[in-house]
Design goal:
Blueprint: E1 4-9, H1 15-26, E2 29-31, H2 46-51, E3 57-61, H3 67-75, E4 78-84, H4 87-100, H5 119-129, H6 131-142, E5 147-151, H7 152-157, H8 159-169, H9 176-186, H10 206-216, H11 226-242, H12 259-262, H13 265-281, H14 286-303, H15 318-336
Parallel strand pairs: 1-3, 1-4, 2-3, 4-5
Helix pairs in contact: 1-9, 4-5, 8-9, 10-11, 14-15
Length: 348
Amino acid sequence: MAHHILVACMPKSASTFVTNALAVAAGLKKVELVPEYGRREQELCEIRLAEAAGIHYVAQQHTKHSNWTEQLCNEYRVSIIVLVRSLFDIVVSLRDHIHRESPVSSMFYLEKMHISQNDAEMERMIVMLAIPWYINFYMGWRSSKSARIFAYEDIIADPERAVGEMLAFSGVSLRKEQVAAGIEAASGDGSRINVGKAGRGRSLQASTVSMIMEMLSMYPDIQDDAYVLMMKAQAADILAARADESEVALPLVVPAATVKSASRQPLRRRMERFVRRKVRLFGGTRNQAIAIGLLVLACAYFAFLPNLIPNSLAGGRIDDFAVPAICVFFAARLLTRIKIRRVPVKGR
């Protein structure tokens, strides 16, 4: 019986390396199971599956999960290997790919004009438009009973073990020497694993990391999932490194009609940075700063500021107590919402 393997992969997840290693080690032919690439979703083509049914093959496709895809793979006896990678690292790798190669992909729509964006702008665009595709990819294949998921981080840490497990899952029995030979051949020219690197996402801005984690938080049932736990650990690492850094907001794309008001933005940003620096200087948070301001306003109103209701009128003393009381109330609310940040412990 012929061996058929589909490498369903996130882009930038060592899929070229894995496919080449599997092909060389097991003597599989590399085939394409989709009729077209470019901006087209890489849904499997049944005609291609039927044409290749009689040969041993491996196919590398950026194919999301669906019941129909899984049904096709079951009918044509295709083993499904799924490759995933840290979303933080993917943002950086995808950014570099767009700048160096092409903005055309099936995950999201970019045009040539976007290539000129700086790294921070491109990363933000990727997170907003492309990362939902990656989360869709993971959530779909995670629900599959036929697929086996492998993490990029595990593959580059121990490629022989990972490729060996992929072959065993696919029903291909090989000696360790054959697996090693496949990996050695795949690690040469034409493979991208030699520039692969885990942890590239450490350069991302804290706001970018927070956006990704907020997307993942929409799925409460997977919060103890191994992949999500890895993402949480990496997020904590990155945010801890950014804790003492002041981020500069990305420039907004403003319609021509509002260009005049946009001229005031640099001053506003300088004021925001000034306030953030002063808050950090005193070891506080933004909520603490606002709360202190409200308490100062309460004291000032009670002691110095003109009254909303003149004291000469009936009930004129009401506002002298009401306004400070409101300020104190909201200050207390802000102070009770302050979260204590856990201090990261080295070595854990």
